[in-house]
Design brief:
The protein is an alpha+beta fold and 230 residues long. The chain is built from 5 helices and 6 strands; from the N terminus they run αααααββββββ. The protein has a 3-stranded antiparallel β-sheet. A 3-stranded mixed β-sheet has the order 2-6-3, with no helix packed on it. Strand 4 and strand 5 form a beta hairpin. Helix 3 runs antiparallel to helix 5. The relative contact order is 0.06. About 19% of the residues have low confidence. Essential component of the PAM complex, a complex required for the translocation of transit peptide-containing proteins from the inner membrane into the mitochondrial matrix in an ATP-dependent manner. Its main location: mitochondrion. Keywords: Chaperone, Coiled coil, Mitochondrion.
């Protein structure tokens, strides 16, 4: 393009026509260069925008996947913690059960030591009853008259005494509850009688001596209990 000053100078003959043609070419080149720069900048801008959008989308996808994986891991950890707690509870219960079994075993062992001779001791009670009745049935006056009877009586008395020592050594004790309050755990009432000078509900007479083995009733005493007549 030719400026107004150029036209005036051309008309006045100051510039030759070749100069005007050169100026037109240069001006056109500048316009083309400017247009090219604008187009290049726009292209770069579009390219930049095109590159940014996929990157942001990829980051969003990665963040979503990461969050999903974290939630999945949290769920797995929660399940593992729950399973661990259940295992610990079962382990504690198992320990408690084992301790109870050990305690019961120790108790049974102790009871076996204490009451292992229970059946044997109960059988010996009949022997003790026979010896006691035998010594009580001998008349005292006959002992002085008959030396053989006296020797037999002394032998029975010593045997009865030795048997009672063995009973005491092994935790076997006699229950002779005359005058005591009737106890159904230690006594067995076989009859009732009215005794004016005794309290009602007490033992007035012992028919058969009872025995305890280490505090446990081995044989209840057979007794007669006082009861007032209505």
């Amino acid at each position: 393009m030719i400026s107004r000053s150029g036209l005036s100078k051309l008309r006045s003959g100051l510039y030759p026509p070749e100069c005007l043609l050169f100026n037109n070419i240069v001006g056109s080149s500048r316009i083309l260069v400017s247009g090219t720069r604008f187009t290049s900048a726009a292209t770069e801008s579009d390219s930049t925008n095109t590159d940014v959008n996929p990157s942001k989308t990829s980051e969003a996808v990665n963040a979503s996947e990461l969050e999903s994986k974290l939630l999945e891991k949290d769920k797995i950890i929660e399940e593992k913690d729950k399973l661990l707690k259940e295992i610990q509870d079962k382990y504690k219960r198992s320990l408690a059960e084992n301790e109870n079994v050990l305690q019961r075993g120790r108790k049974m062992t102790e009871e076996a030591k204490l009451f292992g001779i229970q059946r044997f001791s109960k059988d010996l009670l009949e022997v003790a009853d026979v010896l006691e009745k035998a010594t009580e049935s001998v008349p005292k006056e006959e002992l002085e008259k008959n030396i053989h009877l006296k020797n037999l009586f002394e032998g029975l008395t010593l045997t009865d005494l030795q048997l009672k020592k063995v009973f005491s050594k092994n935790g076997l004790e006699k229950v002779d509850p005359v005058g005591e309050k009737f106890d159904p755990h230690l006594h067995e009432a076989v009859f009732q009688l009215d005794v004016p000078d005794k309290e009602e509900g007490t033992v007035a007479l012992v028919q058969t001596i009872g025995y305890k083995l280490n505090g446990r009733t081995l044989r209840p005493a057979l007794v007669g209990v006082v009861k007032r007549k209505s």
